[in-house]
């Protein structure tokens, strides 16, 4: 379909596709096996200026928006959903600074992330607070001109490879979610270290690590937004970032369809190509249709965000929900099309199936997305009545 992309967006798409094919594809199996962080791929993305596609020009970016980010992440994810996360997770760490940072904070932290010189990460999940983001127990205690941070964040994408971390702590537990405050923490800050490095089923080329804060002292100027705004910072960040997860899922699904089409054309059974069998043709048709529907919704959600609308949690959640469910179905069908070969690691679709699963889980499980969508539908009904 023609989504009437700008010349710059078409250029981003072309460059990202080239990086995916020339840089990421040749190494994706190696990093999936080793679970090491793919710095060579990050270098390729950096040289292609992909880290700044969504960042305003005044902070070193290309002046695009969330749609530009979605386009880049989708193309990179067609090759590897794990490698693409180095960009997507950096955006997740930068977006709250773009939304709530002071001018000084923006000038200090965003340009180096826009250039790809530094990666960023966002940390809110804790051992006792996953879907219930308001249930965090990590604390920030005021101490003169500083705050003292204590607690552990788990399953943090870009883990120990990032340099800039935006994260949320409780400054007043008695206020519940309204007692949470966001902070920017730099790598190397005394009292800030890294714990467990997680061994994952999929996206193994992405670093996923615990963040450990033990009497970590940060200056008050590192507070992001106002005191007590931490939960709002997190939720609005997710509103902006969920189309990025949708794009990752979309790219994984498209990559699986690409591989399935090539395999179906080449594979012979009963004396002819399996692509000539109607049952398999129906599978391919459904895969392509679901992907295109997901792309249309994801691009529309990204455009809504870029239009400057105040809130768009429903559309953002819809894009993440549909695209991730589609990615899981499409990759499962791809493995089926490949048959026994699809179950083998020498073919990429089994990796794509493993990578797809996480998109239904992180940045809010799909059950949470459905709750968000339903709640907003009911709010809209009340406004109309």
Q: Approximately how much helix is present in the residues?
A: 40-55%
Q: What is the CATH class name of the largest domain?
A: Mainly Alpha
Task: Count the domains.
Answer: 3
Report, as a whole number of angstroms, the end-to-end distance: 37 Å
Question: What does the model show?
Answer:
The protein has 385 residues and is an alpha+beta fold. It folds into 3 domains: 7-119, Butyryl-Coa Dehydrogenase, subunit A, domain 1, CATH 1.10.540.10; 121-230, Butyryl-CoA Dehydrogenase, subunit A, domain 2; 234-384, Butyryl-CoA Dehydrogenase, subunit A, domain 3 (Up-down Bundle). Helix content is 51%, strand content 15%. The protein has 11 helices and 10 strands. The chain has helices at 7-24, 28-34, 39-47, 66-79, 85-100, 103-114, 230-266, 278-306, 313-338, 349-357, 366-384; strands spanning 120-123, 139-143, 146-157, 164-170, 180-186, 192-197, 208-219, 223-224, 268-269, 272-273. The strands form 3 sheets. Strands 1-4-5-8 form a 4-stranded mixed β-sheet. Helix 1 (7-24) packs parallel to helix 4, helix 7 (230-266) runs antiparallel to helix 10 (349-357) and helix 9 runs antiparallel to helix 10 (349-357). It starts with 6 loop residues before the first helix and ends with a helix.
């Amino acid at each position: 379909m023609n989504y009437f992309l700008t010349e710059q967006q078409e250029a981003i798409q072309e460059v990202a596709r080239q990086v995916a094919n020339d840089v990421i594809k040749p190494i994706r199996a190696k990093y999936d096996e080793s679970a090491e962080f793919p710095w060579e791929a990050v270098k390729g993305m950096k040289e292609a200026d992909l880290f700044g596609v969504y960042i305003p020009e005044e902070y070193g970016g290309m002046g695009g928006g969330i749609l530009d980010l979605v386009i880049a992440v989708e193309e990179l994810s067609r090759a590897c959903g794990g490698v693409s996360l180095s960009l997507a997770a950096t955006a997740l760490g930068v977006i709250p600074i773009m939304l709530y940072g002071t001018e000084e904070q923006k000038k200090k932290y965003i340009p180096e992330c826009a250039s790809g010189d530094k990666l960023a990460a966002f940390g809110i999940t804790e051992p006792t607070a996953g879907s219930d983001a308001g249930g965090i127990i990590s604390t920030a205690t005021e101490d003169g001109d500083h705050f003292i941070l204590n607690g552990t964040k788990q399953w943090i994408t870009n883990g120990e490879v990032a340099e800039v971390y935006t994260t949320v702590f409780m400054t007043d537990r008695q206020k519940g979610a309204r007692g949470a405050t966001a902070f920017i923490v730099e790598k190397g800050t005394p009292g800030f270290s890294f714990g467990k490095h997680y061994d994952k089923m999929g996206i193994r080329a992405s670093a996923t690590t615990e963040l450990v804060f033990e009497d970590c002292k940060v200056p008050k100027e590192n507070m992001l937004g106002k005191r007590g705004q931490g939960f709002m910072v997190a939720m609005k960040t997710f509103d902006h970032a969920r189309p990025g997860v949708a794009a990752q899922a979309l790219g994984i699904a498209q990559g699986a369809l690409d591989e399935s089409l090539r395999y179906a054309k080449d594979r012979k059974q009963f004396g002819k190509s399996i692509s000539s069998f109607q049952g398999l043709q129906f599978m391919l048709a459904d895969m392509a249709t679901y992907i295109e529907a997901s792309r249309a919704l994801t691009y529309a959600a990204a455009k809504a965000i870029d239009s400057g609308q105040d809130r768009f949690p429903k559309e953002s959640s819809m894009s993440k929900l549909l695209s991730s469910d589609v990615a899981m179905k499409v990759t499962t069908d791809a493995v089926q099309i490949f048959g026994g070969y699809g179950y083998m690691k020498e073919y990429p679709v089994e990796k794509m199936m493993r990578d797809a699963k996480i998109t239904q889980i992180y940045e809010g499980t799909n059950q949470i997305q459905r709750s968000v969508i339903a709640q907003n539908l009911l709010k809209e009904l009340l406004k109309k009545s």
